[in-house]
Amino acid sequence: MREMDKAFDFRTAQTRWYEVWEAARAFEAAPDSGKEPWSIVIPPPNITGNLHMGHALVNTLHDVLTRFKRAQGYDALWVPGTDHAGIATQMMVERQLKAEGTDRHKLGRDAFERRIWDWKEKNQGAIEHQLKRLGCSVDWTRNRFTLDPSLNKAVRKVFVESYKAGRIYRGPRMIQWDPALQTALSDLEVKYEERRGKLWYLRYPMSDGHGEVVVATTRPETMLGDTAVAVHPEDARYQHLIGRTVDLPLTGRKIPVVADSFVDPTFGTGCVKVTPAHDPNDFAAGQRLKLDSITILGFDAKMTAAAGAYAGLDRFEARKRVVADLEAQGFLVKVEDYVHKISLSDRSGAVLEPLVSEQWFMDVKEAAAKALAAVQDGRIAFTPEHHAAVWQHWLTNIQDWCISRQLVWGHRIPAWTCAACGGLHVEMEAPSACGACGDKKLIQDPDTLDTWFSSALWPFSVFGWPDETADLKRYYPTSVLITGYDILFFWVARMAMAGLTWMGDVPFRKVYFNSLVRDASGQKMSKTKGNVIDPLEVMEEYGTDALRFALAIMAAPGTDIAMSPARLEASRNFCNKLWNASRFVQMNLDASITLETEPVFGEAEYWLIGRLRDELGAITDALEAFRFHDAADRLYHLVYDDFCATYIELAKVQLQSGTQAQKAAILHFLDILLRALHPFVPFLTEEIHEDVMAERLPAGEPTLLALRSWPIGEWILRARGGDAALIPRFQEVLSAFLRLKAEQGVDPAKRVAAFCSLLELEPFAEALKAIARLESVTFTSADLASPTRAVAVVAGGAVALELAGLKDPAAEKAKLEKELAKLEKELEPLRARLADDSFVTKAPEAAVAKLRGQAEEREQRLAQVKALLG
RNA sequence: GGGCGUAUAACUCAGCGGUAGAGUGCUACCUUCACACGGUAGAAGUCCCAGGUUCGAAUCCUGGUACGCCCA
């Protein structure tokens, strides 16, 4: 049996145990165990990633739940994995290339792709190592990567079958183009930002020479691609213009004036220019009204040949030139300052360009309806529930999803075009020859799929789908999903849609949306603000267990977490407290006392058993309901207040001189606490378990705490006896003695004689003497008041200290009078309410009884104070 | 423009129909034989504002104010 250090050495413990757990295969699923399965899949971190606070939180919560469920006796499986993160990863490697003075085009596609794979092989281990550092009890034998061949097979199957069912199609559509990354994006990858800009008013003369129209625009350069001017059909001001044509300045083209209700009559002049090739609204209007579409801006964000004299200019340069020319030729009416929203790439930050482009799209309306229904009818339950409202709104207004990306890094689109006849083939495997013309030269679509396409399949692709594996049957649907609400649409909704479509069932039964981790003052962490707290540094400084516990105790559903050094310190101190309490137990029990030593219980034991029973019930309920903070908070107080402050102090006497049976009780209590705390602070508890419990376990009990059961069913918790009210009374009396000493300025170490009128506390005399450091405690029903004593009122009686010569009688009297006034003030509303008929008759009996109890207790004190005052 | 969330002690947050709590900080004291990463005692709050429901509201409802987020 080892001697424990004075302080918990977390640095050693948190690096040691993970290997032991892995070697024991403690976290591997046990499909053949006959246990009920419980499963969860990790939100796969990007391979580019470093563990940040968001990861630390989400994975801590995963681990708490998984360890809890494992302990409860489930076949708990947490599937780990990483995401290839198309854009993010490619950007990172491209940046490296740039630093080396080359780029992906010079390298060529194949070499570039190999380069990213190399990078991935080198870096994937980092994030996995960090998950281990955090203690995540994942099943590494089932580790997945979103580009694994089996996951690729799933992707191809979904693509091909969706295509054949008509839900995936290719076509020219207006998409958001990122000129910096040179790829299309989906609507979700667009961020809108308010910018101060200008509103230019342009004059377009009527072709017949009679009059003009003035249009307002924030993007004057696009006028080169105008193919109409539009007014609202009911706008009385412009009825006479409809059907006529105007001469488009700088180009000499004649374009019609059309009517369409998309025009906002209150914007600008109420006349708008229509550029179907470069604006989403105009594109839709162009389709409706069958207008021409002229592309004057290319994918490189430079003007095209169609822009005539402006061809080759950058879009922002072209704007300056067009405005200057319009002004010179008298077509510029005025310029106003104007604040408008611009769309930016969520990835590169570049100003996006709405462009018509040939891309692949997925029609998700049918799947969206299924996902919507699943939440409405409760097959998927959200915590917090309010996210369901956002879910509903988004899914009912969902647009087709642009799934193709002009990137190298990702799942290649399984579509081939025949070089000879142009025939399109969408197949699982590369066709050997064109089905139409027989030509053997087939060119695969160069594009890859949106990263989220493979993420959507994650809850079943990780289990081997489309193969009908045993894992798939056993672990799908997963039990719970834990993730951030920021990816509700990106990921959660798409998994729901994919699961319902391909598996015919929800991918998870419950979703818990974790909080956002912010800094100490509630600010979002960001590198630019410099307020990022790095979990790896925290683990070094405060310990992994402290980090986990701090995150858990702050993880109240629906509110953000303000992470601060103060919180981390509190958690570290908590860990140390548990360590020292355990050390105390270890020091006081010789090796012959084990968990098989039959314990006997006294008042203190029955009281603590009652506390453990109540709290473990509440903790279990809290974990089932994702109230991690509630569970952690209860454990915190159970350890500090009940176990350490109260029980250990009371047990000290018997630990020194008691019987083996008396001493055995505390071992059981510590054992229960360790098992309950293990999901939150696994390294600390495993370390203590080894030091204190490992050699005292009953035969057949797992020697690793990670494998032991959730303690709620422990036989000891069913023991009942004693008077539950005694301990709180003892605490109050003890506190009163200490307060009297402090009030009277008595040195805490000076032993004085004490008196107590609560005769039932006599069994606690030794404890009171030891803790309050008293010379003696006399239990008596006689009047305690005396000129040489300081007295205090407690529930049901009074206590006193003998202070001959030390005491100021006037101050003592003033104190009691103050107490009297306070009690009168407290009693006033209580008496009033109890005298109130409507309260007594209408309020529930329990509420009245409780109030009556409170009133009686105070009346008693009042009487006691009066008696002491004489 | 629509939707959602949050306003509680100096700070960060729990509580969400029975009369206010935690952590940190603050004040005073204590190195008592598990722990100073400790202990004891204490100070500190018109629970954003205004109405309403109720025997009773920090808690439920309505309206307002402030801040944050999401969608257009």
From TrEMBL:
Residues 607-751 form the Methionyl/Valyl/Leucyl/Isoleucyl-tRNA synthetase anticodon-binding domain. Residues 806-868 form a coiled coil. Its main location: cytoplasm. GO terms for molecular function: ligase activity. Pfam families: Anticodon_1 (PF08264), tRNA-synt_1 (PF00133), Val_tRNA-synt_C (PF10458). Its EC number is 6.1.1.9. Catalyzes the attachment of valine to tRNA(Val). As ValRS can inadvertently accommodate and process structurally similar amino acids such as threonine, to avoid such errors, it has a 'posttransfer' editing activity that hydrolyzes mischarged Thr-tRNA(Val) in a tRNA-dependent manner. Monomer. This is Valine--tRNA ligase. It comes from Geothrix rubra. The gene is valS.
